[in-house]
Amino acid sequence: MNQKYRGRLAPSPTGYLHLGHARTFWAAQQRAKIFGGELILRNDDLDSTRYKMEFVDAMIEDMHWFGFEWREGPDMGGPFAPYKQSERMDFYRAALGKLRAGNFIYPCTCSRKDIQAAVTAPHASEDEVIYPGTCRGKRDECDVMREADTGSSSRSTRHAALRFRVPDGETISFIDENLGLQKSIAGKDFGDFVVWRNDGVPAYQLACVADDAAMQITEVVRGADLLVSTARQILLYRALGFVVPKFFHCELILDDKGERLAKRHDVLSLRTLKEQGNTPEQIRAGWGGKPAGS
Ligand code: GLU
Ligand code: ZN
Fold it and tell me: How many Cβ atoms sit within 10 Å of the Cβ of residue 98?
């Protein structure tokens, strides 16, 4: 079977794009080019507390400036529209319904920080705590599920969040297209994760899988800081009966002290670099001409 390569750029409009994004996205674009495939742009705007419209406009402008080209996206539409997550709730509810029918999830009433944080990709893995499974025994009949199904959940009411029960002790492995064989152990490297927040917002892990599958993405290019999330997502693909795409994880850019660029507060945005007179070509030359990951 020779399926056409489809990759995606999936920024979250919670700030200006910086070098870390540019590098990963550039790798994604290179991969799409190598395979003669297509690239789509998706606006991952589920985090309504941090999302700002000005960042969406800036994101698209900065990406054009840097030389990114996409064939489908929020600014131009396409066969898999809409390309912004806030308009794709039906897909997430359908996926949640499947997880529920397969008994993969359970309601969790712990008021933990990770429930709130679940809407964004957990790039800073060092902050993650493995959920001890406190609510695992809870019955699958919480009202949040019915409301999530019907879409009537109001953001102001406090309900249970929904967690995916991971197969403790199982090694989740995949061959990364850049880094080779990757393994992580469910219950040890990551625990039961939130798929639906207690305020009715789908979590990053579920939204990402539902979209990448629906948009027929054949390869996901992302930073190596999301390796463990990829393992979680493989479990979701499996539970949902979706075809697992290929993965290409880029090494993270570190500064001269070895700290991750994306973590630094003073990291330069593409806007600032542009204002300082840098061209995209100069910025890429600073990467040593290599795409991330090579
Ligand atoms: N919107 C997510 C982010 O910015 C996407 C991560 C991914 O799945 O590639 O981190
Ligand atoms: Zn709980």
Answer: 17
- Using a 6 Å cutoff on CB, does residue 222 contact ligand 1? yes
- Closest residue by CA, ligand 1 atom 9: 222
Flag whether 142 is in a domain: yes
In total, how many domains does the chain have?
1
- Pocket lining: 121 vs ligand 1, CB cutoff 6 Å: yes
What does the pLDDT look like over 109-124, one tens digit per residue?
Answer: 998 888 888 999 988 6
41 lines ligand 1 (CB under 6 A): no
Spatial distance between the Cα atoms of 219 and 7, rounded to a whole number of angstroms: 6
Contacts 24+ apart (CB under 8 A), 257-260: 260/20, 260/225
Q: Does ligand 1 have an atom closer than 6 angstroms to the CB of 93?
A: no
Helix axes 227-240, 204-214, angle to 10 degrees: 60
Six-digit token string for 248: 């290409």
Residue nearest to atom 5 of ligand 1 (CA): 10
Going from the Cα of 233 to the center of ligand 2, the distance in angstroms, rounded, reads 20
The answer to whether residue 293 sits within a structural domain is no
Does a structural domain hold residue 51? Answer: yes
State pTM to two decimals.
0.91
State how beta strands 180-185 and 193-196 pair.
Answer: unpaired
- Ligand at shortest distance from the CA of 114: 2
The CATH number that applies at residue 129 is 3.40.50.620
Mean pLDDT within 99-117: 92
Of all protein residues, whose CA lies closest to atom 7 belonging to ligand 1? 222
pLDDT in tens, 233-272: 999 999 999 999 999 999 987 777 777 666 566 678 999 9
Position 253 scores a pLDDT of 75
State if residue 63 touches ligand 1 by the CB under 6 angstroms criterion: no
